[in-house]
């Protein structure tokens, strides 16, 4: 049980760090950096899904990404916003949500087939 808790915490924090970094740079060179950022998030979550038989680890990583993106999309006390309401910001928020949902719902294919 402590191993699963540790994996859940690590995947949540890993997703949060990835989302933080990509959120800061998502609007640079609009379509290219955003596409690479979505690819990094998708790769991270697919790797979690393929490496662990437990879906909880992947869901924790997806929640880490989503919570971080949604927190950073809010207006700060000074009035600044990291994710602007433009094409890049909209694609980032919607794209992350779709990637997180698809990877969390991915079927378990890591079990061997019995002959």
Characterization of the model:
- This protein is mainly alpha-helical and 115 residues long.
- It has one domain.
- The model has no long low-confidence stretch (mean pLDDT 91).
- Helix content is 71%, strand content 0%.
- It is globular, with a radius of gyration of 15 Å.
Summarize the helices and strands and which ones pair or pack:
Elements: H1 2-25, H2 30-51, H3 55-72, H4 87-104
Helix pairs in contact: 1-2, 1-3, 2-3, 2-4, 3-4
What value does the Rg take, in angstroms? 15 Å
Average pLDDT taken over every residue:
91
Sheet with most strands: none
What is the succession of H and E elements?
A: HHHH
Describe what is shown at a glance.
Helices cover 71% and strands 0% of the residues. The chain is built from four helices and no strands. The model has no long low-confidence stretch (mean pLDDT 91).
Key features?
115 residues; 4 helices; mainly alpha
